[in-house]
Design a protein that fits this description.
Elements lengths: L1 E4 L13 H4 L3 E4 L8 H8 L4 E4 L6 H6 L5 E4 L9 H6 L3 E3 L6 H17 L1 H9 L2 H4 L17 E5 L3 H12 L3 E5 L5 H4 L3 E2 L2 H7 L2 E4 L13 H5 L5 E5 L8 H10 L2 E6 L19 E3 L8 H20 L9
Parallel strand pairs: 1-2, 1-3, 3-4, 4-5, 6-7, 6-9, 7-8, 9-10, 10-11, 11-12
Helix pairs in contact: 5-8
Length: about 325
């Protein structure tokens, strides 16, 4: 079997081994493939039977021009870059990798929150620049330092990742509220389930861990921000489209929202005129919550297992059955 990875660099910039896929066939890995040039994708896929992608689109036109494809593997959980309906019409299975980064993403949400509370990076840089040496006082701080004990975190989307975030926050002494379409007993052990308006009105920190659906797109908007406590903190390392960015920027600049920690934005990579780039107290990282080496190794193992079981005739993690 000929196997092509269209954009392998993000998953494996050199610190992992492609051996699990190499064991299954003749493997060719491209670091990057154009997101817009279909001809390049078609040329690289050629007569391959198995294709892996992270963010490189595989639309209907690629399936039409690469008739040997039998299997598409995502090096990710999301599969919106693949035309799954076209694949199904051609009896091509599409498999993703769910739940590989649960703990890393939950940990990163808390890292964003703690950086907002303590500005560790800023103060470390200040010390390196000599400000502590020159300080007339024993210590100094440039931002309010926030203790999280007894504060309330509201988590929107309380599946695996939301619950992972909630468990860490609860261990720090926070009260946890949750909103989710499917309340469950493990969630009730961590949080109190409430409606959205109650969560907005009662939370000092709001963490977004819900999927991007028609009903959640633009969830953080001017109207819902008005329902929040003054000085709320917003954390989002789910999907950028959950936030109306102009509305959040305005709320940050007015002080209605004290700070935001974001690992995702509406258009990625971030565009130069994104209003959040110049908003007050807005911490933005480049979509790296998932990228701990342990998580990426787990992702690669499952991605290879998806193909191995497809070859055996017992596929798993199929998104277009």
């Amino acid at each position: 079997m000929r196997i092509v990875v269209l954009d392998g660099y993000t998953e494996n910039p050199g610190d992992l081994s492609w051996a699990p896929l190499e064991a299954l066939g003749e493997l060719v890995v491209y670091d990057r493939t154009s997101l817009t040039d279909i001809d390049e994708s078609v040329t690289r896929i050629g007569d391959a039977e198995a294709v892996y992608t992270n963010k490189t689109p595989i639309p209907r036109a690629v399936f039409e021009r690469c008739p040997n494809i039998r299997f598409v593997g995502l090096l990710a959980t999301g599969f919106n870059v693949v035309d799954t309906a076209a694949a199904k019409e051609k009896n091509i299975l599409v498999c993703n990798v769910p739940a590989y980064g649960t703990h890393a993403v939950g940990q990163f949400a808390i890292a964003l929150l703690l950086e907002i509370c303590h500005h560790v990076g800023h103060h470390s840089h200040a010390v390196s620049q000599g400000r502590w040496t020159r300080s007339p006082d024993f210590c100094f701080w440039d931002y309010p330092l926030i203790e999280l004990l007894n504060k309330t975190m509201g988590v929107i989307g309380f599946g695996r990742i939301g619950q992972a975030t909630g468990r860490i926050a609860k261990a720090m002494g926070m009260r946890i509220l949750a909103h989710d379409a499917h309340p469950n007993d493990p969630g009730r052990d961590i949080a109190e389930y409430v409606d959205l308006d109650t969560l907005f009105a009662s939370s000092d920190v709001i963490a977004l861990h819900c999927p991007l659906l028609p009903e959640t797109e633009g969830l953080i908007n001017k109207s819902n921000i008005a329902k929040m406590r003054d000085g709320a903190i917003i954390i989002n390392n789910s999907r950028g489209q959950l936030i109306v960015e102009a509305d959040l920027a305005a709320a940050l600049n007015s002080g209605k929202v004290y700070a935001a920690g974001l690992d995702v934005v509406y258009s990625e990579p971030i565009v130069p005129d994104n209003p959040l780039l110049t908003a007050k107290n807005c911490l933005i990282t480049p979509h790296i919550s998932w990228a701990a080496s342990e998580s990426r190794a787990r992702l690669l193992e499952v991605a290879a297992e998806n193909l191995r079981l497809f070859i055996k005739g017992a596929p798993i993690n199929v998104v277009n059955p």
